[in-house]
Amino acid sequence: MKRIGILTSGGDAPGMNAAIRAVTRKAIFHGVEVFGINYGFAGLVAGDIRRLEIADVGDKIQRGGTFLYSARYPEFATQEGQLKGIEQLKKFGIEGLVVIGGDGSYHGAMALTKHGFPAVAIPGTIDNDIPGTDFTIGFDTAINTVLESLDRIRDTATSHVRTFIIEVMGRDAGDIALWAGVAGGADEIIIPEHDFDMTSVAKRIKEGRDRGKKHCLIILAEGVMGGNEFAEQLSKHGDFHARVSILGHVVRGGSPTARDRVLASKFGGHAVDLLLEGKGGLCVGMLQNEVVSASIVETLEQGKHKPDLSLYALNKELSF
């Protein structure tokens, strides 16, 4: 394999640039040309492709977002869009593709695989909702960003004896809320993967106040409901001086943590190794602290991400 391409797709995540850097430099080290594709699958179909040199990925490892940019492109779900993309890859002489992104990006890579084009997917999403890996690029940075906000909000909550509902991103997964909630000492963690009872939530807040607790932090995954809706439902059980803080897209940005930079570097290097071995149709991941690869078709069609619900049970025991 003499030429490989790389693109980022879907929502940006801290560490994507570190992965691009790893793919580019590892490939060039082995004498392989690298082409960056701007704006994900939209740029692929449009032919927005350029050669990357070592200097192009310099001073990028510490930067959030993705310098290759990203864009939603639903048309790539159609066979027509996929074949146009393959046509552009062949036009530039690209023999293998590395796709960095989340669920939609994986499906794009899987489509290319089914058409016989070698593609390797790297999990890059703050949501940590991709099967076949314990952790995704960007997740660690995201939970640390949420944690910093939780620590700051606690100061205000204590000063005014208030209940704060902190809504965080995560799409349909509760990993961000779960991990940040445990690390931040949240009183309640509300996630899509576990039922909750508003009456019980209200009771725990009252019990805390009765013993002199000056604040209550509830971290809410967006996949359950919005923060304002949650506050409205909670108000039916009493006046808890509730305030809502929606962290939103701020959680996606910022310089990646050391963990995300190392994870991205490992994933990027492994993806190049797979392509140099002539292997495609794979996705890389981290399982039990080991970098692994598996069939992208089997991973998507048979696998399902599951959060670590032992953390949920632990938080119940620690936050009473």
Automatic annotation (TrEMBL):
Keyword Nucleotide-binding: yes
Catalytic residues (positions): 127
Main location as per UniProt: cytoplasm
Pathway(s) per entry: Carbohydrate degradation; glycolysis; D-glyceraldehyde 3-phosphate and glycerone phosphate from D-glucose: step 3/4
Coiled-coil parts of chain: none
Free-text activity regulation comment from the record: Allosterically activated by ADP and other diphosphonucleosides, and allosterically inhibited by phosphoenolpyruvate.
Enzymatic reactions: beta-D-fructose 6-phosphate + ATP = beta-D-fructose 1,6-bisphosphate + ADP + H(+)
Keywords: Allosteric enzyme, ATP-binding, Cytoplasm, Glycolysis, Kinase, Magnesium, Metal-binding, Nucleotide-binding, Transferase
Organism: Enterococcus aquimarinus
Biological processes, Gene Ontology terms: canonical glycolysis; fructose 1,6-bisphosphate metabolic process; fructose 6-phosphate metabolic process
Record has Ribonucleoprotein as a keyword: no
Record function comment: Catalyzes the phosphorylation of D-fructose 6-phosphate to fructose 1,6-bisphosphate by ATP, the first committing step of glycolysis.
Binding positions for ATP per the UniProt entry: 11, 72-73, 102-105
Matching InterPro entries: ATP_PFK (IPR022953), ATP_PFK_prok-type (IPR012003), PFKA_ATP_prok (IPR012828), Phosphofructokinase_dom (IPR000023), PKF_sf (IPR035966)
Enzyme Commission numbers on file: 2.7.1.11
Gene (name only): pfkA
Binding site for substrate: 125-127, 162, 169-171, 222, 243, 249-252
Residues that coordinate or bind ADP: 21-25, 154, 185-187, 211, 213-215
Limits of the Phosphofructokinase domain: 3-275
Subunit annotation: Homotetramer.
GO cellular component: 6-phosphofructokinase complex
Sequence positions that bind Mg(2+): 103
Name of protein: ATP-dependent 6-phosphofructokinase
UniProt family annotation: Belongs to the phosphofructokinase type A (PFKA) family. ATP-dependent PFK group I subfamily. Prokaryotic clade 'B1' sub-subfamily.
Cofactor(s), by name: Mg(2+)
SUPFAM superfamilies given in the database record: Phosphofructokinase
Subcellular location: Cytoplasm
